[in-house]
Amino acid sequence: VCEAEAAGMLVLVLSWLCLPAVASVSGGKLPEAEVKTEVLHRPFICHRKSKYGDMLLVHHDGFFENGTIFYTSRSQGAGDKDAMWFTLGIRQVIKGWDVGLQNMCAGEKRRLVIPPSLAYGKEGKGKIPPESTLTFIVELLEIRNGPRSHESFQEMDLNDDWRLSKDEVKEYLRKEYERYGYPPNDTLHESVAEDIFDKEDKNKDGFISSREFTYKHDEL
Ligand SMILES: [Ca+2]
Ligand SMILES: [Ca+2]
């Protein structure tokens, strides 16, 4: 449900609410497998490069090792309609993407060759057979501050006291709704803010501290 909703509207708000509880689960063992990255197109102008915690909007095509295509986000022929937003570095996507799509400019296009251990592994998934090495052509369309980024926190912390009050969170929700063309809805903002505080205000002091806010990135 979260994914479907997040695709359509209120990307930031929903991805905040729907974030998986990312624990540092990587258990210390370094993967020997690597993502092969090739830049196919680099834009002339690059104001900003992608980093962990950013939200990225991408188009992508996926290929098996024999060259057969198994996915394209452009199949509908409807422009950027099926481009996908995701947050980099939090295992919302396969590990090969988290690793291979760093330091990328908006407008840049890359080819990633990803070994199974950084993709769908021994099990495979859906139409991806077990132990598949996958190739992706990924075009980065847009970079935004991630829902849990330092920048987002500063943007929300209106009085600069390094903690978020419920009013600041509600104000943020109001602005996000406005940005996506939805009318403000105080009752809804109130209940969403309640939910957020239930989950995020770990020490129950009535504020979300920057430490409570920022997620810990998986060691990649
Ligand atoms: Ca504050
Ligand atoms: Ca707190």
Largest sheet: 6 strands, antiparallel
Beta-strand percent range: 15-25%
Helix content: 25-40%
**Morphology:** elongated
On the 0-100 scale, what is the average pLDDT? 83
User: What kind of oligomer do you see?
Assistant: single chain
What hetero molecules are bound to the protein chains?
A: calcium ion
What's the alpha carbon Rg, rounded to whole Å? 19 Å
Number of strands: 8
* N-end to C-end Cα span: 27 Å
List keywords for this structure.
single chain, 220 residues, alpha+beta, six-stranded antiparallel sheet, two-stranded antiparallel ribbon, 7 helices, 28% helix, 20% strand, disordered N terminus, binds calcium ion
3D architecture notes:
The protein has helices at 2-8, 11-18, 95-100, 150-156, 166-179, 186-200, 210-213, and strands at residues 36-41, 55-63, 69-72, 84-87, 109-114, 134-144, 163-164, 208-209. The chain is an alpha+beta fold and 220 residues long. The strands form two sheets. Strands 1, 2, 3, 4, 5 and 6 form a six-stranded antiparallel beta sheet that branches. Strands 7-8 form a two-stranded antiparallel sheet. The protein binds calcium ion (CA) (2 copies). The site of one calcium ion has 7 residues, from strand 8.
Short structural summary:
This protein has 220 residues and is α+β, with helices and mostly antiparallel strands.
Topology:
Blueprint: H1 2-8, H2 11-18, E1 36-41, E2 55-63, E3 69-72, E4 84-87, H3 95-100, E5 109-114, E6 134-144, H4 150-156, E7 163-164, H5 166-179, H6 186-200, E8 208-209, H7 210-213
Helix pairs in contact: 1-2, 5-6
One calcium ion is lined by residues 157, 159, 161, 163-165, 168.
Catalytic activity: [protein]-peptidylproline (omega=180) = [protein]-peptidylproline (omega=0)
Domain PPIase FKBP-type: 53-144
InterPro entries: EF-hand-dom_pair (IPR011992), EF_Hand_1_Ca_BS (IPR018247), EF_hand_dom (IPR002048), PPIase_dom_sf (IPR046357), PPIase_FKBP (IPR052273), PPIase_FKBP_dom (IPR001179)
